[in-house]
Design goal:
Strand order of the largest sheet: 17-18-16-15-21-22-23
CATH class of the largest domain: Alpha Beta
Number of strands: 23
Bound molecules: adenosine-5'-diphosphate
Largest sheet: 7 strands, mixed
Helix content: 25-40%
Oligomer: single chain
């Protein structure tokens, strides 16, 4: 009987359930958006019930629409928005506060208040990250400090913490299992990525009792089984990975030096560094790429806050586009070197600048600049920001051999050409662009014995389009140096 792998992709704005064939092809999918809550300036929350119910409904829908039951699914894999933090009662299962989303900045001041050179050094040495509100630790601390009675209950061992993967596993198993995987653990700021364990010193720093923490597993492992009531029978849950790591796996970047960049709302460049956890000198993050059979593979990661979101801004705030896809045809009407630069520092600049106070700007306007030039500059900024990350990686002695790309923006062929031109690397667009979901389908399939090895997975990966650089070096250098000048102007 033909069986399928079911991937749960719980993202920041929507939940998706995707059925894959055992050859890694998308068979069917269902998706549901859910509300975002912004209770105060800089705060971002999700209702935990929205997260869970949207996941349950999309899974049930994709199965029902294909007349499938649990018997048709060999395994489930879970991938998720990373860092987002939930705390719930061990006995009642009741979540004690909304999920605090990775974008939430409410704990920035607290992070500043505990930041000393010694603390910052210890954090970077142990976790590969930097002391920032982005990661889970300060969010857990906030919940324990601000929800009435929470700290006392936590100390009594009554409360559990989980990122979204852990929370979904807990729900799917009806409170039987409290586990996470090494990639998600590596984004909490509490996990020692070298020793692969929770770190007592960091737990003390954030005043978090260790009894709250989930057990950390490999990415492919027997995580538990879904309660029979959800899908007319139990389904084994055999894989977990944070979204960016899952995309790296879905792109089959299994060798040292292989890199992928996911161009969605933001963009995330990740480069596989093999069994070495390299320490970046240029403010990139070191993270767990995946852990399989107890062996950890590491990656260097750089994040761009505004990629597709800049195009959304042109559409929704400036109203100079009616759709994101229109951007390609409009930008085509501008000269390549139009002299306009858009620095999308709307919420500060991410890696390698980490300048929270920088703000966006459009520079180089002249009387012949118009909508075409501004749209082109917005798209070009995505390539320039990727180049910034490439340069940072080079300073760390790393050079991506080629770049595999995915995410909503890669539908734009001219953008891919410009990225290839500015980076002077080959860019490869994947055939299956649902690479995040594909990544955990691969991981679940490995555990289920459907796929035998990473080599087999590499052979399944297919390129949809390969783009090679066509720009002269002189033009590349000219454009990039003008971009660098523009960035300097917005930095605080
Ligand atoms: P996410 O998973 O972060 O929600 P997606 O991977 O679905 O994002 O990508 C959506 C983003 O891609 C949007 O921000 C949109 O503006 C952008 N986008 C979609 N199509 C195009 C296009 N043809 N050209 C440029 N940007 C695009």
């Amino acid at each position: 009987m033909t069986k399928y792998l079911l991937s749960i992709d719980q993202g920041t704005t929507s939940s998706r359930a995707i059925l894959f064939t055992e050859k890694g092809q998308v068979y069917a999918s269902a998706q549901e958006e859910f509300p975002q809550h912004f209770p105060e300036n800089g705060w971002v929350e999700h209702n935990p019930d929205d997260i869970w119910q949207s996941v349950l409904r999309t899974c049930q829908r994709v199965l029902a629409e294909n007349q499938f039951s649990s018997a048709d699914v060999s395994a489930i894999g879970i991938t998720n928005q990373r860092e987002t933090t939930l705390v719930w009662d061990k006995t009642s299962g009741k979540v004690i506060y909304n999920a605090i989303v990775w974008q939430d900045r409410r704990t920035a001041q607290f992070c500043d208040s505990i930041n000393t050179p010694a603390v910052s050094y210890a954090i970077s040495e142990k976790t590969g990250l930097c002391l920032d509100a982005y990661f889970s630790a300060s969010k857990i601390h906030w919940i324990l400090e601000n929800v009435t009675g929470a700290r006392a209950r936590a100390v009594q061992g009554e409360l559990l913490f989980g990122t979204v993967d852990t929370f979904l596993l807990w729900q799917l198993t009806k409170g039987k299992v409290h586990r996470t995987d090494a990639t998600n653990a590596s984004r909490t700021l509490l996990f020692n990525i070298h020793q692969q364990c929770w770190d007592e010193e960091l737990l003390a720093l954030f005043s978090i009792p260790s009894s709250m923490l989930p057990e950390v597993m490999d990415c492919s492992a027997d995580f538990g089984r879904t309660a029979a009531e959800f899908f007319q029978g139990e389904i084994p849950i055999l894989a977990m990975a944070g979204d960016q790591q899952a995309a790296l796996i879905g792109q089959a970047c299994f060798k040292e030096g292989m890199a992928k960049c996911t161009y969605g709302t933001g963009a995330f460049l990740m480069l596989n560094t093999g069994n070495k956890a390299l320490k970046s000198k240029s403010r990139l993050l070191t993270t767990v790429a995946y852990r399989l059979k107890g062996e950890t593979t590491y990656a260097i990661e750089g994040s761009i806050f505004m990629a597709g979101a800049t195009i959304q801004w042109l559409r929704d705030a400036l109203k100079i586009l009616s759709s994101a896809s229109e951007s390609e045809a409009i930008a085509k009407q501008a000269k390549l070197e139009h002299g306009v630069f858009l620095v999308p520092a709307f919420t500060g600049l991410g890696a390698p600048y980490w300048d929270a106070d920088a703000r966006g700007a459009i520079l180089g306007l002249t009387r012949d600049s118009g909508i075409n030039e501004i749209v082109s500059a917005a798209l070009q900024s995505v390539a320039f920001q990727t180049k910034d990350l490439q340069k940072a990686m080079e300073r760390d002695g790393l050079r991506p051999l080629s770049l595999k790309v995915d995410g909503g923006m890669v539908a734009n062929n001219d953008l891919l050409q410009f990225i290839s031109d500015i980076l002077a690397v080959n860019v490869e667009r994947a055939e299956v662009i649902e690479t995040t979901a594909l990544g955990v389908a691969y991981l679940a399939g490995l555990q289920a014995g459907i796929f035998s090895s990473m080599d087999e997975l590499s052979s399944l990966w297919q390129c949809n389009k390969k783009i090679t650089p066509a720009m002269t070096e002189a033009q590349r250098n000219r454009l990039y140096s003008q971009w660098q000048l523009a960035v300097e102007k917005v930095q605080k």
